[in-house]
Amino acid sequence: MNTYMGKELMVNPSDYVLLDIETTGLKPTEAEITEIAAYKVRDNKVVDTYQSLIKINGTIPENIINITHITNDMLVDQRPIEVVLKEFKEFLGNDIILGHNITFDIGFLTHYSFVCFGEYMLNDYVDTLRIARQVLGYKVPNHKLQTLSEYYHLDTEGEHRALKDVDLNYVVYNKILEESNERV
Questions:
Q1: CA–CA distance from 172 to each of 76, 123, 154 (Å)?
Q2: Residue 108 is part of which domain span?
Q3: Catalytic residue numbers?
């Protein structure tokens, strides 16, 4: 059992915080968080939104800029990770975290939560990637959020920005639940 993060739940919650982050790389110990976005969901309805860019200490690699369209100039006047993460943790509270390949996001948030505050993010979580694999199986060539968004004919313009990905994930999750209920 991993004592550095909450436990993965195989449930379909109606109350949760749907989360996405953007980073400068793939490893929390070598990269920084550039953006956090989330929806607070109650009874399957979005009731609040959180989004913030984050001032970083290093620079964003060109290949990441090409994916996220977040530039170094966009982060210069933003608040540092300590301020944004404290604010986000207040937004999150004890809610279940939901997201696509969410252990990536939680890994970064846990790392920076420990670096900044000496504590881990222990919220339980639901990974919509696993749900998509179970429900859709071989109906799609892979289970990436972009592929699922295209499968459901969603407008992916602006993807790889945290708030757009949160929105896409919210719609995809609800469509997967609908498809799951149709199978029962």
A1: 33, 22, 9
A2: 16-183
A3: 160
Per-residue model confidence as pLDDT tens digits over 61-98: 999 999 999 999 999 999 999 999 999 999 999 999 99
Residue 11 lies in a domain: no
Q: Is residue 179 part of a domain?
A: yes
* Model pTM score: 0.94
Q: Quick one: DSSP state of residue 146? A: H
In a domain, residue 5? The reply is no
Say whether 179 sits in a helix, a strand or coil: helix
CATH at 165: 3.30.420.10
Write out the DSSP string of 75-123. HTTSPBHHHHHHHHHHHHTTPPEEETTHHHHHHHHHHHHHHHHS-----
Please tell me the total count of domains within the chain: 1
